[in-house]
Amino acid sequence: MIDHWVIRLANKVVKEKGKAIVIAAGITTSGPPHLGTVCEFLYPWALVKELRRRGVDAYFVFVGDIMDAFDSIPTSLREYGEMLEPHLGKPLVHVPDPYGCHRSYGEHFLWETAKIMEKFGVKPDEIVGSNELYSKGFYDDYLVFFAERLDLVKRILEETSLRKLPQSWKDIVLPVCEKCGKIATTRVLGFNLSEGTIEYICDKDVGYTKGCGHKGKVAIRDHMWKLAWRLDWPSRQDFLGVDVEGAGVDHHTRGGSWDTAVAIHKRLFKKEPPIGFKYGFILLRGRKMSKSKGLGDLNYILSLVPPEVLKYFLFRGGLEENKNFKDDPRFLLSLYEEFRNIGLLFEKKAKVKEPGLAKKVYAYMLASESEKASLHVSFTDVLVIYQIYGDWKVVKEKLGFPEEIDKLRTYVENWVKLNIIPKEYRIKFNPTPISKHVDVVRSFAGKLRENMKDIEIHNLVYEVAREYNVNPKELFKTLYEALLGQPYGPRLGRLIVAIGVSKVKETLLKLTEK
Mean pLDDT over all residues of the chain? Predict the structure, then answer.
């Protein structure tokens, strides 16, 4: 049995919840999706795929929390600051779309998230904005239920959040101020359940915005309110019939909102809670992702690597461990190569006994939507040969697998355009006269044969160096200088095969003529 978290979780779900499962996930669409956003839909989707593979009827619903308050203007939207700033503190669904293509800011970025899901092959059965759930009245009875049990709700919240609430606290709900439209600044004064109203005052200073001081009432039936998150979450799980839902480790820490959700299900709803699972943070160069700071821009990352390679990176490790992604080109080249090698192993359908390797093969299976995901060609080879010839027809002739070359073409061209290629892989065939080890280089050239493989050429360097009592490092350096005009480059054997063995032989013999 492969020891992967998806398999362990699927086993638990089937054992405890049966053969018809609702899996939920969601995000607050407070800005453009970043790398950390991916795990919100990718991890539950992996579970859906594994359950369906076992014949389980798994339904996947994804909720956009667009009733949440707009609390900051992301760095990438600073040019729209003048338009957006007056709307800080309002529900995201009431903030205008800066691009003008959707009814609101919240809906725009929920749509962007849906488009990202498509790129990753994730297909929820349902994507819904929380505003729609509120407007259809799904939360109405829960609000009344909590208001009627206010003292018990307060006690549960204090016990599970590990904090003392003010004696006058009644904020189980956040009304939208009818005067300024803000939801982050209102405070509940009381409930009149017989007439179905919430009395509030808009007076909070939340740091990024202030209330207007208006005192008023909002009717429950008008749905200009949302439940506090710690009550919203279990309520939603209850009326959607959720069996499984994951969340970041911050929700699952002691005093986190998952503890509250479990207590609400057990002590108030008198039901067993959904199965919860927690996942670690996705870091970028050791830093946590941030919509407001623009860290982890997905469009940029997906211009460097295909979605399946990124999925493999996220699936290969443990669920709860933090995963440190780097947009450093050397890291990415290594990731490309690992993805290719594991893919070739998967393709062979070989029985892998080593546990760590078996887990990677399973991660590859999760990451790959089809056979077209596999890579038989090395990204490094494509990168090098394209730089040498600048002609995709030649690249295909040299490496074969034209469909794979077409798939990698965009990424290679982006690397070149963005100038992120590591210096040792910046290649231009640039024959350059040499002044030392001339006889050794000539001997090496004389021993080159047209059909030699890269490893044979690599070994030949050592053989010739040994024959002439030369340090192999010195000979490698001299050969790079002769061919590229620089003392470094990609693996020499692969480079010579890429340029063409006959062409290299002819060039070196000409450079070493006496």
Answer: 94
Q: What is the pTM of this model?
A: 0.90
Tell me the helices (H) and strands (E) count for the chain, helix number first. 22, 13
On whether the CB atoms of residues 242 and 262 are closer than 8 A, the answer is no
How do residues 186-228 score in pLDDT, each as one tens digit?
999 999 999 999 999 999 999 999 999 999 999 999 999 999 9
Query: What sections of 125-227 are H helices per DSSP?
Result: 130-135, 140-148, 150-161
d(CA 188, CA 199): 6
Tell me the domain boundaries of the chain: 5-139+230-288, 173-227, 428-514
User: What CATH number should be reported for the domain whose range is 5-139+230-288?
Assistant: 3.40.50.620
Query: What does 329-341 look like in DSSP terms, one character per residue?
Result: HHHHHHHHHHHHH
Phi-psi region of 390 (alpha: psi -120 to 50; beta: other; left: phi over 0): left
Beginning with the edge strand found earlier in the chain, give each strand of the sheet holding 282-284 in spatial order.
287-288, 282-284, 323-325
DSSP 361-373: HHHHHHH-SSGGG
How far is Cα of residue 308 from the mean position of the Cα atoms in its chain?
11
CATH architecture of 428-514: Orthogonal Bundle (1.10)
- Contact partners, residue 386, CB within 8 Å, separation at least 6: 392, 395, 412, 413, 416
Look up residue 117 and give its amino acid.
M
